[in-house]
Input
Amino acid sequence: MKNDGITNILMAGVGGQGTLLASEILSEVLMQAGYDVKKAEVHGMAQRGGSVVSHVRFGPKVYSAIIPEGGADILFGFELLESYRYLPLLAPQGTVVVNNLRIAPPSVALGRETYPRDIPDKLRQRVADVRLVDGLQLAEQAGDPRTVNTVLLGALSNLLDPSPDQWLAAIKALVPERFQQVNLEAFDLGRAAKA
Amino acid sequence: MQKTVLSGNEAFARAAYEAGVQVASAYPGTPSTEILENIRQYPRIDASWAPNEKVALEVGIGASMGGARTMVTMKHVGVNVAADPLFTFAYTGVRGGLVLVAADDPEMHSSQNEQDSRHYARAAKVPMFDPADSQEALELTRLAFAVSEEFDTPIMLRSTTRISHSKSVVTLGEPCEQLPATGLQRDPAKFVMLPGNARIRHPFVEERLERMAEWACDQPFNRIEIGKGELGIITAGVAYQYAREVFPDASILKLGLVHPLPTRLIREFAERFKTLYVIEELDPFIEEQVRAMGFQVVGKDRVPICGELTPGRLRKAFDLETPEALEVGEQLPARPPNMCPGCPHRGVFYALNRLKAFVTGDIGCYTLGFMPPLSAMDTCICMGASIGNATGLSKVLEADAQQKLVAVIGDSTFLHTGVNGLMDMVYNQSPATVIILDNSTTGMTGRQDHPSSGYTLSGEKTYQVDLEALCRSLGVNSVRTVDPYLMAETQQVISEEMARPETSVVITRRPCVLIKHDVLEKKPPLFVDADQCTACKACLKLGCPAIEWEPGAEGGKGFAKVDRLLCTGCGICDQVCKFGAFGVCNEE
Output
């Protein structure tokens, strides 16, 4: 079915994790690299700690901004449960880049349900290429725990064409100046991380 | 020209700038809010938040009467509020071009219904464009101002969540340099809609639509894309993208203007194809009109009427092959949105739950008070409805049940359409209690200012509605203000006012924890002393995202714990704990 030259990246995380800025940087770098890019996400309820997804699609010409079930080439997860939840959107031959982080949803925090066990193993049982990133640890190493999203972009960048310089330009274009240095550091650590 | 990635909402704002708009007005509402927030970056546009969509449109009409190009934006349900001026403004027409952007929310990502704004265009006899991506949002909106002036009509632009909140590559245009001259110009025959004048304008409106329908047949925004084979598809808006992707070989009539429809063009297209599909989101708006022209079409008999379309849903609707999908194979805990840690509404709903109040609710973050474990909301209809609903309920209840009635409404929502409800409650002597949850902002849509927040859209200080004085002036004798972080006092005051046999108002005042103005005191986070915790789980009944239950190891007792990165130090958990298990972290 995939003969349209389009690459699909599904981002999944929890409201407040900075997925929006990450998807902005990702779209910017892809546009600068010469692709047609579309990105879809929902604002509003998302900032209240709910499940959030961004669809990013790029290629010579993109129509729909939404990725169909089984159509994502990359599942780019900011949190384990949310990545697992959106697994049905990933193509069976696709790649998972996922932050090794667990955030309890309300029913788990209340002790009414349990957080699914061993999500990385479950992902590996279903997908050959799963790259687990210790986002928080690397972000702290970079100097600011809030740069997890940039660390993860660094890990993702290994799967995409744009050069490190193009990524750095996009980060510089979208991140306020006083946070640029730490974000550039975070990107490099994410890109270099053994996943 | 410069290429950039813009959301639909950023493109609408950019179009306003390029078209020389001088005045913009709106009430925030997802997914439309960011249009005005982006317009703010263009200093030559006077952009402001109105207390509701009706006022926003009336402000826009006034500016148009003064000769300015004007943009008014709202979410789909906002058009219900603005419908009154809209229907008559359609008769008067414009002086400066006026564009109303109505943003629909198929799938109800953040809405209480999924009404289809295209019906408003038809009912109000106002032309409507339906852009399919950010580039079209820019181009059609820019064009709409010229069309508005040429045909002497307001124009509606329909957006949807997937247009407003999706980003795509856009080539920018040049901003017009010469702004239209503004000033007073008397034209009572055009602008005073008394029956004598309106009877003259109505035939003009009908004739205007006929002229536009013919004109629209030859415009590039209504275009035919010739494909291969026997299938023809009529589509518009974001549905075009899905149709193009799912049926790459089909011929497509893509409509940029969905009201009035270009009947001649549709006829020419439809006659060429054996099989004709109409693919549109929500209602069979185009489909029914094409059927009325005498064509057999496949439409809502296959394409879902409920929810948004996606390429996947479209494939399913037409029994096309869908890719193999991975399975999760277990039930996962849901992750619904929740009130933030430190949210000032939390304690109020905790108290309402304890008091077993029957709560008529309203539209805002606090609608999340419906969710367990707070579970303290019984109704939610629309902006401002809580107060009228409580008045109506009180009319059919015995005195003891009347005392259970509490209407809850946010400060922004109260000023939007709650004031009239309270006026009626007092006037007609309903004994219900109204709680105004005053967090000094319009929270749910991302913290916009409003007439009692003290700031304008541009962040300047301004007059501030005195909510207590306003309620008293409406005739409420008992107006009491509490700090919702003080749990016992809040519950006590609400309980006393519920018992009062007349209309009463409780204002719970505490700024939103996410508020942008520099008014928040930073407090150190709390922690739980696991030895003191008796596992009673009382704190869990607050539903605070910063408190998590830690089950005990094999048979041992569990305990609550606090995520110190999330905790804002509001301390309401400490107030509900009877065992003193919470403590305040020392600041390093």
